[in-house]
């Protein structure tokens, strides 16, 4: 029998989607909960007393009432190569890319630097309770190898792809339609489905790809339909105007992708803030997902994502840091920013909805609901244990909370990596 670990304490449980119905029907906290881990998977979830009896051989670990046992956080849109330029001052999207991002991404032409940044990035995000990310790499194929290898070394589930750009970027950061196709294809053969890895075909965004490159990547996706496809959509108004100039025949920004076979159920569109009604209709019809990047959207000055409107259309929505456009590696901080943007739009999100978005919601956008994102029997054993009194400021609010949701909300709003008591990856405590 596989080695068993019985983890007891308050557990976060999902029974449905809290974005399309009352959150109370979809999310609950079992204060006397328990999870059994065996062989990298969740063998059972239930009440502590019952599982102690059912698994008498298991090694027992208890987290007190001041904790919440959550699925590991899933960050649905990041740029690991931007780790070292996070929090760069004063630019909006296009200038931010040209002045900060592209020079740093150029440095990853050195495989040793890419490996060092990949390791640093995964260690930082694990320390913040994030067990899976969907990352853009750079145009260098070895930058994708570096992240896939670093994730495999840590036993982590990972989604990533080589970023493709063949125009409007420095010479050193340009591939071609053909090399983007060839290099992405050989990375798919090397990594897609290897261990816990998923490959995402990754055109950066329409301004940095020629129609020929988008066409080549659409063809590649058609040949590998079980891969994901990730890109950016309608983040800033200047960007949208630029797309209109570059693609005069397109009906809208989404159409630049749609015309080249890059819109479909396994497509994931980051930001998606300034959408036209037709774009929303097409996203809803095709089953594509969008990702909310709230700290990035305020930091780069992009706009206020319409969570309530898109969720009401049953569009799968994930949550993401978008580092280094985002200003934090922390999904707690990211949930807080999503709450604040909801307030600015008159639709505050409940703590239960925020936690769901940061776990099951993001996992759904990555088509990984059967692997990660929930405490459910059969899923992979990735857990984040939240300490609900991690600082003096949070502890005094916790002490004054009238129920556990009030306490959880204080940690969402004020917490950071100090609130991550433990992280379990693939059944192993890190
Ligand atoms: N649009 C195209 N590339 C990027 C990027 O690296 N970050 C963000 N936030 N938006 C982008
Ligand atoms: Zn991005």
What can you see in these coordinates?
This protein folds into two domains: 4-71 and 374-429, Urease, subunit C, domain 1, CATH 2.30.40.10; 73-365, TIM Barrel. The protein has 16 helices and 17 strands. The protein has helices spanning 23-26, 48-54, 93-107, 111-127, 141-153, 177-191, 211-223, 237-246, 253-258, 277-286, 294-299, 307-312, 331-344, 351-365, 392-399, 404-414, and strands spanning 4-14, 27-38, 41-47, 59-62, 67-71, 73-79, 130-136, 158-161, 163-164, 197-203, 228-233, 267-271, 289-292, 317-319, 383-387, 420-425, 428-429. The radius of gyration is 21 Å and the shape is globular. Guanine (GUN) binds at residues 79, 93, 97, 101, 204-205, 232, 235, 296, 300, 322, 325.
State the gist of this model.
With 430 residues, this protein is an alpha/beta fold. It contains 16 helices and 17 strands.
Any key phrases for this structure?
single chain, 430 residues, alpha/beta, Urease, subunit C, domain 1, TIM Barrel, 2 domains, nine-stranded parallel β-sheet, four-stranded mixed β-sheet, 16 helices, 40% helix, 23% strand, globular, binds guanine, binds zinc ion
